[in-house]
């Protein structure tokens, strides 16, 4: 389960500025704060290399970072972000055709001037047309950025459709590495399609975003051989939890009219000050904790998970609206802070059979190293999902490990 994508984007505005466990989309970019450094790091990688890999554990806000943080900055720099989340189970379009469809949807939505594709033209062939020019509505040349989010679903959901995933791996490898597709390389007839192509051009970018525990899958031989660029350290950006100052921006800068600076800092401290596994267990059971009793700001080394912080802020804001108040005050904070997570959990399963709650707590949530048996941990922090393979082996622990170099970036034929 990915905490960033439980139910899709919610409508956000100045009165409702936090999405909880949903994600910020591009329409809410002005409400998205706390990730300025990561946005800049992503922009630099996109500008420097055709391929960028963003990875981090669930709940850190990868989708929000891309859609609300990166996309507006890309557009300002005359890039065209094309968001793709593969529908692996789809019986219609192939996976590469899903990317192609996304490209033309975005071109049309942007009011761009672009040549129509031929009926049977591949994405590789279209993007390598010798005369390809994509122009924005403001008469600027556009560079497409193909953003492949939730890439780990190719390894999970894709396990039921391996042929489809295998085909994507080959075709995506050609795009990322600029290999000439085998079928195209075999077409030698005079006047054939190669005459209309620029085989050396790579006028597009690709971003792959996935959960950190699936990085090792990318480094498996079949993916590494097809896409050696995925292994390059300079192409990768690990997303980490927020530090206290980033978290403060995510609370206060998002809604300065709804909360005081002092209370915003206390909220950050509340989320960061206690060992999260213990706080999580107590919260899910509805027990009170000693959180929030310290008066100093969170220690410099504290780490805050954005999903948990956003959930807390959203539920505090809901309590504010129910109380008919203009701002989130200390009375609301003190009255609700220790029950927010357990209440949210109960509301989430209220309309479901009792057996569902028992299944979640007994089968999906496993005990951590310091957790007594039979005591579930909080759904927003540190839990393991039983049906998700544990990938904390040597490969995922050191995703930048040295390995034998793949084939040279290609201007020649794939073998």
Spell out the key features of this protein.
2 domains; about 5% strand; alpha/beta; disordered N terminus; 16 helices; about 425 residues; Rossmann fold; 5-stranded parallel beta sheet; disordered C terminus
Q: Could you explain how this protein is built, in words?
A:
38% of the residues lie in helices and 7% in strands. The protein has 415 residues and is α/β, with parallel strands linked by helices. The chain has 2 domains: 35-240, P-loop containing nucleotide triphosphate hydrolases (Rossmann fold, 3-Layer(aba) Sandwich), CATH 3.40.50.300; 244-388, no CATH class. The longest helix is centred in the C-terminal third of the chain and has 18 residues, at 306-323. The two termini are 37 Å apart. 39% of the residues are buried. Residues 1-7, 274-298 and 366-415 have low confidence and may be disordered.
Spell out the blueprint of helices and strands:
Layout: H1 36-48, E1 51-56, H2 62-76, E2 79-84, H3 95-109, H4 123-127, E3 143-148, H5 162-177, H6 182-185, E4 205-211, H7 215-218, H8 221-226, E5 236-238, H9 244-253, H10 261-272, H11 276-284, H12 306-323, H13 330-336, H14 340-348, H15 354-364, H16 394-397
Parallel strand pairs: 1-4, 1-5, 2-3, 3-4
Helix pairs in contact: 1-2, 9-10
């Amino acid at each position: 389960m990915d905490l960033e994508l439980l139910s899709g984007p919610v409508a956000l505005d100045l009165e409702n500025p936090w999405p909880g466990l949903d994600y910020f989309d591009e329409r809410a970019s002005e409400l998205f704060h706390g990730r300025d450094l990561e946005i800049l790091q992503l922009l630099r990688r996109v500008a420097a290399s055709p391929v960028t890999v963003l990875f981090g554990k669930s709940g850190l806000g990868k989708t929000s970072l891309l859609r609300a943080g990166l996309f507006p900055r890309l557009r300002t720099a005359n890039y065209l972000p094309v968001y793709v989340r593969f529908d692996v189970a789809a019986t219609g379009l192939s996976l590469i055709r899903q990317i192609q469809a996304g490209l033309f949807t975005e071109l049309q939505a942007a009011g761009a001037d672009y040549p129509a594709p031929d009926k049977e033209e591949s994405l590789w062939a279209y993007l390598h047309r010798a005369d390809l020019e994509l122009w924005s509505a403001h008469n600027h040349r556009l560079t497409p950025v193909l953003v492949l989010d939730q890439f780990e679903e190719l390894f999970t959901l894709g396990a039921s459709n391996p042929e489809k995933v295998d085909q994507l791996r080959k075709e995506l490898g050609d795009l990322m590495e600029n290999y000439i597709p085998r079928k195209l390389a075999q077409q030698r007839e005079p006047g054939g399609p190669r005459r209309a192509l620029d085989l050396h051009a790579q006028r597009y970018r690709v971003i792959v975003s996935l959960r950190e525990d699936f990085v090792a899958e990318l480094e498996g031989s079949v993916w590494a051989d097809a896409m050696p660029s995925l292994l390059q350290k300079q192409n990768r950006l690990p997303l980490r939890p927020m530090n206290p100052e980033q978290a403060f921006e995510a609370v206060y800068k998002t809604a300065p009219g709804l909360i005081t600076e002092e209370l915003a800092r206390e909220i950050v401290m509340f989320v960061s000050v206690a060992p999260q596994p213990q706080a999580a267990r107590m919260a899910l059971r509805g027990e009170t904790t000693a959180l929030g009793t310290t008066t100093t700001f969170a220690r410099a080394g504290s780490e805050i998970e954005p999903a948990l912080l956003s959930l807390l802020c959203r539920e505090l804001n809901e309590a504010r609206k129910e109380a008919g108040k203009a701002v989130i005050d200390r009375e609301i904070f003190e009255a609700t802070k220790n029950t927010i997570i357990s209440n949210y959990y109960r509301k989430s399963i209220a309309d479901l059979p009792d057996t569902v709650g028992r299944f979640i707590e007994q089968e999906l949530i496993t005990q951590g190293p310091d957790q007594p048996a039979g005591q579930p941990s909080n759904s927003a922090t540190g839990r393991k999902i039983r049906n998700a393979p544990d990938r904390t082996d040597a490969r995922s622990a050191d995703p930048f490990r040295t390995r034998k170099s793949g084939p040279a970036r290609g201007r020649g034929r794939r073998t």
